[in-house]
Design brief:
Helix content of chain C: 25-40%
CATH class of the largest domain in chain A: Alpha Beta
Distance between the termini of chain A: 57 Å
CATH topology of the largest domain in chain C: Uridine Diphospho-n-acetylenolpyruvylglucosamine Reductase, domain 3
Order of helices and strands of chain A: EEHEEEHHHH
Largest sheet of chain C: 5 strands, antiparallel
Number of helices of chain C: 12
Low-confidence stretches of chain A: none
CATH superfamily of the largest domain in chain A: Beta-grasp domain
CATH architecture of the largest domain in chain C: 2-Layer Sandwich
Strand order of the largest sheet of chain C: 4-5-10-6-7
CATH topology of the largest domain in chain A: Ubiquitin-like (UB roll)
Chains: A alpha+beta (166), B alpha+beta (806), C alpha+beta (288)
Oligomer: heterotrimer
CATH architecture of the largest domain in chain A: Roll
Strand content of chain A: 15-25%
Structural class of chain C: alpha+beta
Order of helices and strands of chain C: EHEHEEEHHHHHHEEHEEEEEEEHHH
Mean pLDDT of chain C: 97
């Protein structure tokens, strides 16, 4: 099958590649770009382990073809920590609040939570639960994931308050 | 830092030892997408394997045509049973003493059974080619109801062993019969029932479910022809056992097999067994000379690799009118699917189901279990449980509620009247266990007081009255569950896997700078071993947990161990860790005495150092001691500072807990909502309370899913229904209730640090709490026992049968 | 779970998209959000040779006022329906329904056009479109035509859409001010299809129900317009007896398939319960 050329931005870097049209975005990220932090848990668009940020929205990369990402700006878990290694407040929050165990759902959780906090910087517990409803976790029972996101929301808000004060 | 002026508290805190909420070491990599799971592995020239599977539950395979698949560019090989047969690998032994087809030969026995393995240059081509395999079948009648398995005229499933009258666990009564397991005292139990003032009898079924970790089963096999060495990376909860089994199966010497379990995305029992995918990837690597990866998809996972439960328990209790239990009798019909691939210790065909007397002082009991074959996937794994403990806990906790109802007693009160009393421990149960410790009354009372139990009952009565008056369609249930677990398999006197005693191990080396490398025979799949074992080491030898690196899963470097399942890591490997530390400490004491120029009896351990008794200012820190061990050890002592411990536990541990679930049910829809869930756990000494709480949250969520909706169901012709996340109930954050956790501490008297294990308690105790809440809600309408799963339609139907749907 | 191979097309204009669809009436499929189609392709239940990606066709996206109604482009996502402030003001039931579809990630991709066009009886938007009396614009080789949502659904996955035709937009009449509405959906969990669901749009005047439309999701091979049930409410007081009668009539037209969501009789009853609840909530929201 003929390959299609695509050009996109992944974690701030321009990427050009040739892909078979049927290549799923998640396989493109994992196999061609070696960004293996994005996981596959269910194959049927339910678990959200493959969630990435795609042009300012959260998507499940197992249900998009890589060719659909032509021109897109994508952020994966590998693009969350600062260049100096500083963890994103969500990454910190998940650790502080024990929001993960086996770690398999965590990248998808963090990527979805990242967008959720853009949409709603100070979500209530119910809003977090609803906003995270596309991501399954088999280990934590979600309670600490909620707390992790609350931690991050508070930290992000606090930081910007501080910046505003300066 | 001034080591003399530093307070004891500060020194203690710096260690991050036992009992502190140490943040997890693992999270640094996992939160950045830097875990290394099996599917992340890429090797030069790696191929990909995919299965062609049976669409039928039961059929004869007339022919298999792989020519079209082989013609696909990029396909290197297609394996069938015929290819495996000359290698004697078309069948493999199971842990339960049966054999399982690696690839189906002349017959398929369950839908989704592996028939051919396609090996191609990538997973897309492998999938294309697997689709092109043509199999001619002759469909046979499927047997899906275990109650019909031993009927006359039932279809015979296992033609390979149909004339075998002796199985791995004794006589077989029927070609579809696997074993009968009997324990307890038949005669005295019969007498107890004969003389009983009150008896109850109920068929309590625990439906077939699946552990379903978020990462499916997967492996990469790489055979090096030149060296004759095989390396296998895989989702293995018990990597050392896999290595031994691989050696036995393949004939490759064990030292030339390297099994590595990297990060594992959850196991819950799914990743204990050896599956055809692992075997085929190994064979394919040997055949092609290239590394071969196999990754199952979710539908394959739910329909082929492992299942749990499928226990049908006819349960009887004898009691006095005053509510004292006098006897327990249980017969279990166990549906094992097409092959007996249960992952139990080898001598225990029904696991530790004989913990079924629970937390109660039964003077006598008798249990029989019949295992049967059906046209369903093999498995019978311990899904977040220690070998059929969750079935046993569900059985007894449901039955106690049924008895309470019959006696007109409050279910909590009935439990209180029958608990094993604190002074009875160590307690010898009627079915042969020695419970090490417990304080059940205290735990139950604390739970009742915390939730305000009496007020809840009053509210429930008021709601029932309102329902009767037609003012509401909502009813309320209060589910009480008090469980006793049996974990930490186990003592060599009664636990082995294929003859290997179920010890576990730790190997700890303190380097000259005081940094520690510790390796264990267990394997975390989310249980936080890298964090918690280090805490034990920190407290035992006084080196900060941050200076300890814990490694597991590489069978070349880790000491031999039996792996992680059945809440066994804390009772076994954590014990080994403490014991190895104590060996190190004994040597450290000699070195310290030498350095301090006193007799070793005159020094004592103090948090992070040895000091001269009565002279706290004269001490040597563990760091000083470590340096000396490599630099100038005392005369007569070997240099170095390391120890190995293989710990054979003297007994199991017996965690327990009291759970209370408050539930509101809308009878118009059957939708049940958990209003409150309180879980009190006693797991003995608490190593890391943060992690314990996390384990309890997770286990309760799995219990909630099982009780309220999970089921791997089959239709009458053997089609597996709902084997994807559309139907298999995994609750999201929206459905999942909020959890309240609490604890008491009754240390294990025989464990070096008094810990008991906790990972499975919430699943074991949780399922009956939810189920009892549903049953309790409908009891006033006349319900005695409603089968799980309690999804909305089944609750609605149950209410309809009770005449509550108008 | 690997899709079969296909040729990929990415038209940049509506004309180009329509021409491509027309050129591949039997072996092509348009790809909008793809959240119904791609899972089917991964299961190889759908194996199109040509996939026509509508993602780059700007004309198919967006919401605008047109005459006495609203035009919603076919590739407008569920997320866009939820966040569009004008639509939320004018037709709030759209937002209420969209919020009950799948999960946030799926809604960020899934489109209203895809939801209504593929004829899956589990989808929520088809019944809502019937309730709102929406019209679908279909474009094909022979030009465009309009089909009422109420005439569109013929069977499970069978619609009035001809091979090679593309659904380009949906028009919805502007509902009267002060109308009451509700979409009641019973489901097992987030991400599931409805066990049963009901959409209600109504108006009240003088303490009576003056207009009413009711439709049902996933209790028959197609979405159902419960006309008889709605008729039973007209001129009636908005009270429990009225709702019960409507529910009863709605139950009568269901033909649910038994599945993991429950046996047929249960799902029929649930259709009734959803109707009753939707009516009660719609009444509470309507201006008298």
């Amino acid at each position: 099958m003929a390959k299609t050329a695509i050009a996109l931005t992944v974690n701030g870097e321009a990427v050009e590649a040739l892909v078979e049209p049927r290549t799923l975005l998640v396989h493109f990220l994992r196999e061609q770009l070696n960004l293996t932090g994005t996981h596959i848990g269910c194959d049927t668009t339910h678990c959200g382990a493959c969630t990435v940020d795609f042009d300012g929205r959260s998507v499940k990369s197992c249900t998009l073809f890589a060719v659909q990402a032509e021109g897109a700006e994508i952020r994966t878990i590998e693009g969350m920590a600062g260049a100096d290694g500083t963890l994103h407040p969500l990454q910190e929050g998940f650790r502080e609040m024990h929001g993960l165990q086996c770690g398999f759902c965590t990248p998808g959780m963090i990527m979805r939570a990242y967008r959720l906090l853009q949409e709603n910087p100070r979500p209530t517990e119910d809003e977090i639960r609803t906003g995270m409803a596309g991501n399954l976790c088999r280990c934590t029972g979600y309670q600490n994931i909620v707390r992790a996101i609350q931690f991050a929301a508070a930290k992000i808000a606090g930081d910007s308050l501080q910046e505003a004060a300066e | 830092m001034n080591e003399i002026s530093e307070t004891r508290e500060a020194r203690e805190a710096r260690l991050q030892g036992l009992g502190c909420k140490r943040k997890r070491v693992e999270d640094i990599r996992f939160t950045q997408g830097k875990g290394s799971y099996v599917d992340d592995l890429k090797l030069p020239g790696m191929l990909f394997g995919d299965f062609h599977r049976s669409p039928y539950g039961h059929a004869r395979v007339k022919s298999i045509d792989t020519s079209k698949a082989k013609a696909v560019p990029g396909v290197l090989a297609v394996l069938t049973a015929a290819d495996l047969k000359p290698l004697k690998l078309d069948w493999m032994p199971t842990l339960a003493g049966d054999v399982q087809a690696v690839l189906a030969g002349d017959k398929v026995l369950f839908q989704g059974q592996e028939i051919a393995f396609v090996v191609a240059t990538d997973r897309y081509i492998a999938a294309d080619a697997a689709d092109l395999i043509e199999v001619e079948y002759e469909e046979l009648p499927a047997l899906v109801d275990p109650f019909k398995a031993m009927a006359e005229g039932a279809p015979i499933l296992r033609e390979d062993i149909k004339d075998k009258t002796e199985g791995a666990h004794g006589k077989r009564k029927h070609p579809n019969h696997i074993f009968t397991w009997e324990i307890g005292d038949h005669e005295t139990t019969d007498l107890a029932f004969r003389d009983a003032e009150v008896t109850i009898k109920e068929l309590i079924s625990y439906q077939r479910v699946h552990p379903c970790p978020l990462e499916t089963c997967q492996s990469v096999a790489s055979f090096d022809k030149i060296k004759g060495e095989l390396t296998v990376w895989g989702t293995f909860q018990a990597p050392h056992v896999v290595r031994t089994v691989a050696a036995i199966l393949s004939g490759i010497p064990e030292h030339k097999i390297h099994v590595i379990a990297p990060d594992i995305g959850g196991g819950f029992g799914n990743k204990v067994g050896v599956y055809p995918g692992y075997v085929c990837a190994i064979v394919a690597s040997i055949v092609t000379g290239r590394p071969v990866k196999w990754v199952e998809d979710r539908i394959e996972n739910l329909s082929a690799t492992a299942f749990a439960r499928d226990y049908h328990m006819t349960t009887e209790i004898a009691a006095t009118k005053a509510g004292k239990v006098t006897g327990l009798r249980v017969h279990v019909l166990a549906d094992h699917g097409a092959f007996d691939a249960c992952a139990d210790p080898s001598k225990w065909p029904a696991g530790f189901f004989n913990i079924v007397t629970g937390s109660y002082d039964f003077p006598t009991a008798h249990v029989t279990v019949d295992g049967v074959y059906t046209n369903k996937a093999p498995g019978g794994v311990a899904y977040r449980c220690s070998f059929r403990v969750t079935e046993a806990a569900y059985c007894i906790e449901r039955a106690m509620d049924i008895l309470a109802q019959k006696l007109g007693l409050d279910p909590a009160e009935l439990r209180m009247r029958n608990f094993i009393r604190r002074e009875q421990f160590p307690y010898h149960s009627a079915l042969g266990w020695e419970y090490d410790s417990g304080d059940y009354h205290t735990a139950m009372q604390k739970a009742l007081d915390t939730v305000g139990y009496q007020a809840l009952r009053a509210e429930q009565r008021a709601k029932q009255e309102a329902f009767r008056r037609g003012e509401t369609r909502e009813v309320m249930g209060i589910g009480v569950s008090f469980f006793t677990e049996i974990v930490g398999a186990g003592p060599s006197k009664n636990c082995d896997i294929l003859g290997i005693a179920m010890f576990d191990s730790a190997e700890i080396r303190i380097h000259p700078t005081g940094a520690v490398i510790a390796r264990m025979g267990t394997k975390s799949q989310g249980q936080s071993h890298e964090t918690t074992y280090a805490q034990i080491i920190a407290s035992e030898i006084g080196i900060p947990a941050d200076d300890v690196m814990v490694e597991e899963g590489n069978t070349d470097t880790a000491p031999y161990g039996l792996g992680t399942y059945g809440s066994r890591s804390t009772p076994t490997a954590a014990a080994a860790t403490a014991m190895a530390c104590r060996k190190i400490k004994a040597k450290a004491q000699m070195i310290a005495a030498h350095l301090l120029e006193v007799h070793h009896d005159d020094v004592e351990f103090d948090i992070d150092r040895f000091r001269v008794k009565g002279m706290p200012e004269r001490f040597k820190t563990m760091k000083d001691i470590a340096w000396t061990a490599y630099n100038a050890p005392p005369p007569g002592l070997e240099p170095g500072l390391e120890a190995v411990s293989y710990y054979d536990p003297p007994n199991m541990t017996y965690p327990f807990g009291a759970y209370i679930c408050v539930m509101d049910i809308d009878l118009d829809t059957g939708v049940a909502k958990v209003r409150r869930f309180y879980a009190l756990d006693d797991c003995g000494t608490r190593i890391n309370p943060m992690i314990i709480e996390g384990q309890v949250h997770g286990g309760l969520t799995e219990a909630f899913a099982i009780a309220m909706g999970q089921e791997i169901a089959y239709d009458e012709i053997g089609n597996v229904k709902g084997a994807s996340f559309m139907d298999f109930f995994l609750p999201t954050a929206v459905e999942t209730p909020k959890w309240e956790t609490d604890f008491t501490v009754t240390p294990s008297p025989h464990h070096p640090i008094g810990a008991k294990g906790v990972g499975e308690s919430p699943n074991v105790g949780g399922v009956p709490a939810f189920s009892n809440a549903v049953n309790d809600a409908l009891a006033f309408l006349g319900a005695t026992h409603i089968q799980m799963p309690h999804d909305a339609w089944r609750i609605w139907k149950a209410a309809e049968a009770l005449g509550a749907q108008g | 779970m690997i899709p079969g191979p296909f040729a990929y097309h990415r038209p940049r204009s509506l004309a180009e998209a329509v021409a491509l669809c027309a050129a591949h009436p039997d072996d092509g499929r348009p790809l909008a959000g793809g959240h119904s189609l791609v899972p089917m392709m991964k299961l190889r239940l759908a194996t199109p040779d040509h996939l026509i990606d509508l993602g780059a066709v700007a004309e198919l996206k967006g919401v605008r006022r047109e005459g006495n109604g609203w035009v919603i482009g076919a590739t407008t996502t569920q997320a866009a329906l939820i966040t569009d402030p004008n639509l939320a003001q004018a037709i709030p039931i759209l937002r209420e329904t969209a919020q009950q579809i799948a999960d946030p990630q799926v809604r960020s991709c899934g489109t209203i056009g895809g939801n209504v066009a593929n004829g899956d009886p589990g989808n929520d938007m088809p019944a809502l479109m019937m309730c709102l009396d929406a019209t679908f614009r279909l474009a094909g080789a022979n030009g465009t035509r309009e089909v009422k949502a109420r005439d569109f659904y013929q069977g499970a996955y069978v619609t009035a859409l001809e091979p090679g035709e593309l659904l380009t937009a949906i028009t919805i009449p502007h509902p009267p001010a002060g109308h009451g509405y509700a979409y009641e959906k019973l489901k097992r969990k987030i991400g599931d299809y409805a066990t049963a669901a009901a959409a209600v749009m109504l108006t009240l005047a003088g303490g009576r129900i003056t207009t009413c439309a009711i439709s049902l999701t996933n209790v028959a091979p197609t979405p159902l317009l419960a006309a008889d049930a709605a008729a039973a409410t007209i001129g009636q007081k908005p009270e429990e007896a009225t709702f019960a009668e409507a529910a009863h009539r709605a139950e009568a037209i269901t033909e649910p398939t038994p599945d993991g969501r429950g046996p047929a009789d249960y799902r029929t009853k649930m259709a009734g319960v959803m109707v009753r609840r939707a009516l009660a909530r719609a009444v509470a929201r309507a201006s008298a």
